[in-house]
Specification:
By secondary structure, this protein is α+β, with helices and mostly antiparallel strands. It has one domain (about 1-95): Beta-grasp domain (Ubiquitin-like (UB roll)), CATH 3.10.20. Helices cover about 25% and strands about 20% of the residues. It contains 3 helices and 5 strands; from the N terminus they run βαβαββαβ. It has helices at about 10-15, 30-40, 80-85; strands at about 1-5, 20, 60-65, 65-70, 90-95. It has a 5-stranded mixed sheet. Strand 3 (about 60-65) and strand 4 (about 65-70) form a beta hairpin.
């Protein structure tokens, strides 16, 4: 099981109060985790990735083990600690403004 931390607005949309867990068959990658997340919580489709292109939304970032994974290829394996479920895959909503 992959542990996923979502920002408060997405937790509210998904109707969950804390971290969620998703099961990924095969290699744990960003794409696999997000596919499993959207399958389990269909109301999140289009909020993290664009519907058509499947590209990460501009103000969404991915972190694990204090590393920004946002610009990593979506099919690159996630760190072992995330794949084992000992560390969480974090979806973070970036803040912009002036």
């Amino acid at each position: 099981m992959i542990r996923v931390l979502l920002p408060a607005p997405l937790r509210s949309l998904a109707r969950v109060s804390g971290e969620v867990e998703v099961e990924v068959a095969g290699t744990a990658t960003q794409r696999a985790v997000l596919d499993a997340l959207e399958a389990r919580y269909p109301m999140l489709r289009g909020t993290i990735r664009d519907h058509a292109t499947q590209q990460r939304r501009a103000f969404i970032r991915f972190f694990a083990l204090q590393q920004d994974l946002s610009n990593d290829p979506p099919d690159e394996p996630l760190p072992d600690a995330v794949a084992r479920g000992t560390e969480a895959f974090c979806v973070v909503a970036a803040i912009a403004g002036g």
